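Translate structure to sequence.
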């Protein structure tokens, strides 16, 4: 009777642990899919200023970072599938495999978090330098392949009612204008479909776009950091629950050597 009672208690623990494991595993999967989506967005969205700025030329930061996010997201999705399978079938090797993958992903996530904080300032500086470079190249007929970047910059200036990165005087460095007084049509309320316009200075947006661009950059870094930290916290619960579940499965009376 005592043995049967002990088995029932172990069985109750297994059911409870499986429930919480599935809940946290579902959260883990959702966060992993968010990383996948983030990676796909950076890689394929041609309306994303950050992606377009860094998708051409020598600097391939976005491409490398996107592939890293896609890789981690794919591993998380696979790991979650192993977790659901192991929880449902109660096969001893599956929790062990699941826990091994969790530890691997945990270490990788820690590395990504460290990388974000270490490289944030470098990427930020490259981001500003690349915007300045785009402003100096804007309207150059020999660089027609850069038109998608110019169109996005136009959209930013027009929609946010700003001009240049820090202010309108930055456009004085652009040498692709017909005369020195011209500025991009997007720096005003003009609806003309051309790169530069002759417009009175009092009709030009005086504020630079730097504040908006920096806010956009910081928000995306914050979102990615929040997802990474959430994954790490979730994994701590998952590794602990998986370890306890594995120990109770071994104790369960279904194993003939127990």
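Result:
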């Amino acid at each position: 009777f005592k043995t049967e009672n002990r088995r029932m208690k172990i069985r109750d623990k297994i059911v409870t642990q499986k429930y919480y494991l599935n809940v946290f595993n579902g959260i883990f999967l959702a966060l992993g899919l968010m990383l996948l989506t983030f990676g796909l967005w950076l890689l394929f969205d041609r309306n994303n200023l950050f992606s377009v700025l860094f998708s051409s030329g020598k600097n391939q930061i976005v491409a490398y970072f996107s592939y890293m996010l896609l890789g981690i997201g794919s591993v998380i999705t696979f790991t979650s599938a192993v977790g659901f399978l192991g929880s449902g079938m109660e096969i001893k090797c599956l929790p062990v495999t699941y826990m091994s993958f969790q530890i691997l992903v945990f270490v990788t996530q820690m590395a990504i978090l460290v990388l974000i904080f270490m490289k944030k300032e470098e990427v930020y500086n490259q981001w500003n330098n690349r915007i300045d470079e785009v402003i100096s190249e804007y309207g150059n007929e020999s660089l027609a392949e850069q038109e998608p970047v110019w169109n996005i910059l136009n959209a930013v200036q027009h929609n946010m009612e700003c001009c240049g990165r820090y202010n309108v005087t930055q456009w004085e460095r652009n040498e692709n204008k017909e005369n020195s007084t011209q500025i991009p049509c997007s720096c005003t309320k003009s609806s003309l479909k051309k790169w530069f316009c002759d417009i009175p200075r009092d009709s030009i947006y005086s504020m630079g776009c730097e504040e908006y661009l920096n806010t956009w950059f910081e928000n995306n870094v914050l979102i990615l950091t929040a997802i990474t930290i959430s994954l790490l916290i979730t994994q701590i619960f998952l590794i602990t629950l998986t370890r306890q579940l594995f120990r109770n499965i071994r104790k369960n009376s279904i194993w003939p050597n127990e």
